[in-house]
Task: structure prediction
Amino acid sequence: MALKFIRMAVLYAFVGIGLGIYMAASHSFAQHSTHAHANLLGWVSSAIFGLIYQVFPELGRHQLAKAHFYLHGIGLPIIISGVFLIYSNHGDVGEPLASIGSIVISLGFIALGINVFRNTPAE
Result:
């Protein structure tokens, strides 16, 4: 599970970096929020999830880890597409997509939370 999240993180790092380079080259920063979502939810959060599953490999053996991975992986492109559309003046389509993506990602975070609290040793 750790490696799956690390690979996802690297892919979204490329998306975030690519969008950042595009914005800098074009001197148009209208997609700054899309850039932030790709970097923080895609690159940073996915990398942190990968590290969590590396440090606590027993968490990765539970179905909750699979649910977390797939929910995050499905929700990310939906929310990023929605935010992109919002800042491209297509909020009528973008807002529902961003909302759906947010809910799907939140469900993934809930799966992680349940997994952590149920399946890590109490200190």
The chain has one domain: 2-119. The helical segments are 2-26, 32-55, 63-86, 91-119. The radius of gyration is 16 Å. DSSP finds four helices and no strands in the chain.
